[in-house]
């Protein structure tokens, strides 16, 4: 910590003060900030190395792309007051339930929203976006590896099936699967045209897997 503090103290002339720290007008203000922060007690936790790297990558992937809290974890909602949800306590390996007010849950969710233009994933070295096209083929050549072909585009339906085990094409909020494929009778006695339902299902399926919009 001492080395870090000394480095920060020496960087005043090369530091661009962000707007939220506009009150730092002089080097004395900067020293006061650094020294006070250095005197605080910091809790540093370094987890043990995971045994299964694939599980770690999947966890990080879900964290980067999914919402902070999934709908399946919501336990109870009191209209206009509180929201209860379940979570896994990694220390005890047990599921716990917590209840928060609407304002508190929003504060926690907002913490996960990145700043505008913030890159969640960054590459460096020969994988940096600026130079990967130039250096990556040379890396494959040096390692005597075959250059991989273009990666096929992955659509929402495939991702939902692979990572969530959910088929969005069978969502009951859009249609009933038996109505689409079988043309069953509705509760009011009116029949469903199998041909028309099948055509509509094919149209929606093509839109979801091919990136084309459907007018409803």
TrEMBL record:
> Residue ranges of the Transposase IS801/IS1294 domain?
1-131
Q: Which GO terms describe its biological process?
A: DNA transposition
| Matching Pfam families | Y2_Tnp
What are the boundaries of the signal sequence?
none
GO molecular function terms listed in the Swiss-Prot or TrEMBL record: DNA binding; transposase activity
Q: Where in this protein does the record put region Disordered?
A: 183-204
Q: What InterPro entries does this protein's entry cite?
A: Transposase_32
Q: What is the protein's name according to its record?
A: Putative transposase
This chain's source organism reads Pseudomonas savastanoi
